[in-house]
Amino acid sequence: MTFAALWSAPRGAVAAVLGAAALVAGCAGSTSRMMNAVTPYKIEVVQGNFISAEQVAALKPGMGRQQVREILGTPLVTSLFHADRWEYVFTLKRPGVEVQSRRLTVFFKDNVLDHTEGDEMPSEAEFVASLGSKVSQPKVPPLEATEAQLARFPAKPDTAPPLDAQPPATPPATHYPPLESPRR
């Protein structure tokens, strides 16, 4: 907008333009503080099969493919080029915690388990202990009210009569109307 156009514009439009300019100039310093206060949500990413030390100990050479699958689950990676090898990979990415990554390779020979190679697997108890959250629980304030605070909310009188003062309930009906009308 040129100066001549601004001068000939109605006073409301001039005030709006000047107000917007002042708002933008005033917010420049607080924008960085606001952006630092707002953080994006970061999700936990779990990929693959968790294999425990107990599962690896249950594997014995000579087991069939189905027996291995029942103990370890379906492998994450099977290759057409390496039909006698199954890859079990597990990755856990959590915000603020080091990435956990483990790998176990199972080798077959003549469709029976030959041997395994890979990382040392933790026990189930060790793995669960490693999942301890770094996020602290918020402190819950004590739920107490002073007499002055309670006085602001007067107690309502009990309008219901005591249970023993109520008349006895009417007996249930012994005759009911038919569900369907008789056909004629």
UniProtKB/TrEMBL annotation:
Pfam families: BamE
Region (Disordered): 135-184
Alphabetic keyword roster: Cell outer membrane, Membrane, Signal
Chief location: membrane
InterPro entries per the UniProt record, alphabetical: BamE, BamE-like, BamE_dom
Molecular-function annotations in GO: protein-macromolecule adaptor activity
Origin superkingdom: Bacteria
One GO cellular component term noted in the UniProt record for this chain: Bam protein complex
Pro residues: bias regions: 164-175
GO biological process, one term: Gram-negative-bacterium-type cell outer membrane assembly
Keyword Membrane listed: yes
Cellular localization per UniProt: Cell outer membrane
Domain Outer membrane protein assembly factor BamE, residue spans: 48-115
Function recorded in the entry: Part of the outer membrane protein assembly complex, which is involved in assembly and insertion of beta-barrel proteins into the outer membrane.
Family listed: Belongs to the BamE family.
Subunit structure: Part of the Bam complex.
Database matches in HAMAP family: OM_assembly_BamE
Protein's name according to its UniProt entry: Outer membrane protein assembly factor BamE
